[in-house]
Design brief:
By secondary structure, the protein is of the alpha/beta class. The chain is built from six helices and ten strands. The chain folds into two domains: about 5-85 and about 185-190, D-Maltodextrin-Binding Protein, domain 2, CATH 3.40.190; about 95-180, D-Maltodextrin-Binding Protein, domain 2.
Length: about 190
């Protein structure tokens, strides 16, 4: 049986990537496929549907986002590596609702513009649905990055994006209003029925 491993090409994940590859028996380099983390669930599922044995290494945030967009997904978690990084503000990547330091969320008006990292469109939508049931209304702006810049330039009142060290939110004079989703590092695959 030939096994393929789809790994994130993000250099900051080297230690998690290496620990996970060790767990998987250090497969030969020719069996490793590098990809963007957000594409890994799709690649794993597609290759599996084409008869390949494949595992992917990705964050639980990116798997959740994929599963919310594709309800019939057969992907499952094979192994979880708890993310523990003392440099991370919350110990791990955390999707957060961010806003001005001058007020808390309850002091904001009920009609707001929110800039959302497009990688987290579905998780953010579920989260905002809860706030909308409490009377808030949101104009949603989706960007592939630069979410804090949108806030700094007056394009949004709030931001939904991943917080890691917290450096960019500090530079943008933002504060965390709420933690939406904390991420760990996963091995994913399609389990046989």
């Amino acid at each position: 049986m030939i096994v393929f491993i789809v790994v994130p090409n993000n250099k900051s994940l080297v230690s998690y990537r290496e620990a996970t590859l060790s767990y998987l028996g250090n497969p030969p380099k020719e069996r490793i496929i590098e990809s963007r983390g957000e594409d890994i669930p799709f690649i794993v599922e597609e290759l599996s549907q084409n008869g390949k044995t494949v595992f992917g290494l990705t964050g639980s945030d990116l798997l959740k986002e994929y599963q919310l967009s594709k309800y019939e997904s057969k992907l499952s978690v094979i192994k979880t590596f708890v993310w523990l990084d003392e440099k991370a503000k919350f110990g791990k990547p955390t999707l957060c609702l961010l806003g001005t330091k001058e007020k808390n969320f309850e002091q904001l008006p009920k009609n707001l513009k929110v800039c959302i990292n497009s990688k987290y469109k579905n998780i953010a939508k579920r989260y905002l649905n809860v706030l909308e049931s409490k009377g808030y209304k949101f104009v949603k702006i989706y960007l592939s990055g630069s979410t804090e810049a949108a806030y700094c330039n007056g394009l949004s009142d709030l931001v939904i994006d991943i917080v890691y060290t917290g450096a960019s939110i500090k530079e943008s004079d933002l504060e965390v209003y709420d933690k939406i989703f904390e991420s760990d590092f996963l091995v994913i695959g399609v389990q046989d029925d």
